[in-house]
């Protein structure tokens, strides 16, 4: 999930009526030509403003595959509009809801991704493992590219990509033990690969590389582990549905009622009301999924599962918000029209996968 509002002590506007001229100069030109755009500095979203489930100011369809326009926010209304909106009672111009991105492209890409996932999941599950591996490699490419562009950290991509794909396959074929061995070998490969370059920056490069190996492929491996059960496709579908529903519930409730900020220093747009919506929707969906989709599951287990998913998905959102705020960017990439990058779609899913795998194993076993 992406953020569409960013706090700023300076209080500079972004896309609003008081926005100043864009900076000029070679550094700015290089930044504009890069794959991702720098994070704009904007004031906190005012209470009662148009916010999504995490307080973001753009209309969207919920869920990891159908995200809001958070990372591609554009000015809400052109300044040259012949009929400006009437002022609010306080004298400030009223804000209008805006998708902030090509909503048609976002929906189309989301539906296409969903079709690929469902088809591979139920037609031939090993193909879905390939889908996970491809997503992991692209995600690693985005993450390492942004680290090098913004922080001059050169996490070695080749051992990460090879080891990450192997990690997912090993988890599917050999179970948790295979995943752990592949993770250890990937970390070792990162340490050795970086030795071929000068020693300056070695520590920060390999530290970032090991972090990337854990954050993207290792967490994604738990999706492959879900697939190894007898009802594996249904477990994966439950995992995806609960994450999507959690995000959608956050949007539906937070957009309508969101006023109190959840974590203003990390993501100024997210609201406590949105979190309550995520918990409520995810628990209801969890009860239904455990009762009707999972062999041996019961509704009360689904309530606990939904609560855990809402918590992990929110933490995942905040975690990537921290990373992008530190890097000074809004998106990890631009690969998916209307969505941003692959990593912008995986932020909720990655930390949620091990949570769902663990709880389903406790409730109904891993077989």
Structural overview:
Among the domains are: 50-60 and 230-367, no CATH class; 124-228, no CATH class. Helix content is 59%, strand content 2%. The chain contains ten helices and two strands. The chain has a two-stranded antiparallel ribbon with strand order 1-2. Strand 1 (261-263) and strand 2 (267-271) form a beta hairpin. Helix 5 (202-227) packs across helix 6. It is globular, with a radius of gyration of 21 Å. Residues 4-35, 42-82 and 96-100 have low confidence and may be disordered.
Q: Could you estimate the helical fraction of the residues in percent?
A: 55-70%
Distance between the termini: 32 Å
- Could you give the count of β-strands? 2
Number of helices: 10
Share of residues in strands: under 5%
| Mean of pLDDT | 79
Low-confidence stretches: 4-35, 42-82, 96-100
Q: What is the string of helix and strand elements? A: HHHHHHEEHHHH
Q: How many strands, which pairing sense, and closed or not: the largest β-sheet?
A: 2 strands, antiparallel
Radius of gyration: 21 Å
Based on CA inertia axes, which overall geometry fits? Answer: globular
Strand order of the largest sheet: 1-2
List keywords for this structure.
367 residues, mainly alpha, 10 helices, 2 strands
Question: Quick recap of the structure?
Answer:
With 367 residues, this protein is mostly helical. Helices cover 59% and strands 2% of the residues. It has helices at 26-33, 103-123, 125-151, 157-193, 202-227, 232-257, 272-292, 299-327, 342-346, 349-364, and strands at 261-263, 267-271.
């Amino acid at each position: 999930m992406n953020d569409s509002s960013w706090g700023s002590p300076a209080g500079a506007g972004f896309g609003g009526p008081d926005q100043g001229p864009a900076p000029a100069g070679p550094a700015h030109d290089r930044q504009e030509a890069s794959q991702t755009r720098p994070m704009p500095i904007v004031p906190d979203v005012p209470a009662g403003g148009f916010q999504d489930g995490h307080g973001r100011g753009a209309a969207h369809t919920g869920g990891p595959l159908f995200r809001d326009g958070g990372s591609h926010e554009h000015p809400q209304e052109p300044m040259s509009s012949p009929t400006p909106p009437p002022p609010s009672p306080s004298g400030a111009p009223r804000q209008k809801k805006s998708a902030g991105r090509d909503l048609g492209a976002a929906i189309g890409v989301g539906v296409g991704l969903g079709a690929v996932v469902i088809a591979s999941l139920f037609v031939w599950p090993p193909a879905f493992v390939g889908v996970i591996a491809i997503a992991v490699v692209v995600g690693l490419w985005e993450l390492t590219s942004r680290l090098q562009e913004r922080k001059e950290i050169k996490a070695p991509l080749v051992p990460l990509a090879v080891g990450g794909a192997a990690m997912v396959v090993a988890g599917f074929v050999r179970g948790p033990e295979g995943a752990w061995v592949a993770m250890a070998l990937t970390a070792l490969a990162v340490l050795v690969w970086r030795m071929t370059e000068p020693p300056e920056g070695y520590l920060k490069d390999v530290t970032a590389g090991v972090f990337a190996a854990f954050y993207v492929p290792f967490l994604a491996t738990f999706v492959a582990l879900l697939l190894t059960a007898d009802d594996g496709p249904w477990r994966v579908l439950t995992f995806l549905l609960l994450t999507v529903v959690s995000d959608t519930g956050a949007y539906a409730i937070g957009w309508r009622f969101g006023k109190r900020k959840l974590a203003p220093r990390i993501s100024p747009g997210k609201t406590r009301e949105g979190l309550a919506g995520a918990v409520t929707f995810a628990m209801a969906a969890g009860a239904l999924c455990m009762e009707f989709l999972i062999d041996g599951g019961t509704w009360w287990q689904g309530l606990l599962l939904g609560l855990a998913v809402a918590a992990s998905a929110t933490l995942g959102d905040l975690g990537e918000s921290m990373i992008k705020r530190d890097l000074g960017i809004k998106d990890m990439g631009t690969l998916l029209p209307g969505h941003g990058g692959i990593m912008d779609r995986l932020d909720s899913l990655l930390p949620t996968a091990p949570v769902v795998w663990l709880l389903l194993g406790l409730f109904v076993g891993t077989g």
